[in-house]
Design a protein that fits this description.
It holds the Pfam family DUF305. This is DUF305 domain-containing protein. InterPro entries: DUF305_CopM-like, Ferritin-like. This protein is mainly alpha-helical and 132 residues long. It has 2 domains: 37 residues; 86 residues. 73% of the residues lie in helices and 0% in strands. The chain contains 4 helices and no strands. The radius of gyration is 21 Å and the shape is elongated. The N and C termini lie far apart (71 Å).
């Protein structure tokens, strides 16, 4: 029984040590991206998909930060969602190019269509409201 308690204490301490050791890395990431490792060395595959996903992510993050906030929620929402949707399209195109799973490829095609439709809607909204 004493050994079992010592084992449980060691497991608890090891778990806490792991959590504390990983906390600073987790806390440094933007809230929306926490837990995602988008570095180019993470799971870099020989097929080039990692570079394509990273490029799409980098472009999306840059473009989402580019529009200045106006203080008008509707305008800000649309201005920042358009590059977000464009990033989703690029990622889905990468899945179509490199992916193997037929269900994920079907999902990627659906994402591309839906995101295109929503981008068109947002552009129409902007034009109707004199934005851009």
């Amino acid at each position: 029984m004493k050994n079992l308690r010592a084992f449980h204490a060691l497991c608890l301490f090891s778990g806490l040590s792991f959590a504390v050791a990983t906390l600073p890395v987790y806390a440094e990431q933007p809230a929306a991206m926490q837990g995602m490792d988008m570095s180019s060395s993470a799971h870099a595959g020989p097929d080039g998909s990692t570079q394509a996903f990273k490029a799409a992510d980098d472009k999306m993050m840059h473009d989402m930060s580019a529009p200045e906030y106006t203080g008008e929620a509707d305008k800000d929402f649309v201005a920042h969602m358009i590059p977000h949707h464009e990033g989703a399209i690029e990622m889905a195109q990468t899945e179509l190019k490199y992916g193997k799973d037929p269900e994920l490829k079907r999902l990627a095609r659906n994402i591309i269509k839906a995101q295109h439709d929503e981008i068109e809607f947002m552009h129409r909204w902007q034009a109707k409201h004199g934005v851009k």
